């Protein structure tokens, strides 16, 4: 799928908000500037966030709770995490019980985390558009909007 501009990334995030639920993990992979945070912003806006979501690059984990959003969401940016052992210290396993985890750079969590995650990968085309590829696990097959 080709996403032509930031508005398309935000629109995809809004569509994901309609199918995501607590306990899910959505992984967003791609180079810096590919639009991962734009997808996250669209999802959070559709879930009710009134202000623009900041990138969690510095904080690593940015939590959102009702009434700010319809259900708890953790927007996680693992760019500065070196390995899966560091990610364990973030407490994401407990949070996943009742929150949606929206994770940029999810590969730094380790493969075990990604078994049932919807993994979206963005690459930048020569034209500047973004190519989206998805790994859709069984848990998402009935919900994924592009199947």
Automatic annotation (TrEMBL):
The keyword Transport does not apply. InterPro entries: T6A_TsaE (IPR003442). It comes from the Bacteria. It is found in: Cytoplasm. Its main location: cytoplasm. Keywords: ATP-binding, Cytoplasm, Magnesium, Metal-binding, Nucleotide-binding, tRNA processing. This is tRNA (Adenosine(37)-N6)-threonylcarbamoyltransferase complex ATPase subunit type 1 TsaE. The gene is tsaE.
């Amino acid at each position: 799928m080709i996403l032509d501009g930031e508005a398309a990334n935000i629109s995809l995030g809004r569509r994901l908000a309609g199918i995501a639920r607590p306990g899910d993990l959505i992984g967003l992979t791609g180079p810096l500037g590919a639009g991962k945070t734009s997808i996250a912003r669209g999802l959070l806006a559709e879930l009710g966030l009134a202000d623009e979501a900041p990138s969690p690059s510095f904080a690593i984990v940015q939590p959102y709770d009702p009434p700010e959003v319809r259900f708890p969401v953790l927007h996680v940016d693992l760019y500065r995490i070196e390995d899966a052992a560091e990610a364990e210290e973030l407490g994401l396993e407990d949070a996943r019980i009742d929150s949606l985890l929206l994770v940029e750079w999810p590969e730094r969590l380790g493969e075990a985390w990604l078994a049932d995650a919807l993994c979206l990968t963005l690459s930048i085309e020569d034209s500047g558009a973004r190519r989206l590829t998805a790994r859709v696990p069984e848990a998402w097959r009935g919900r994924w909007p592009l199947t």
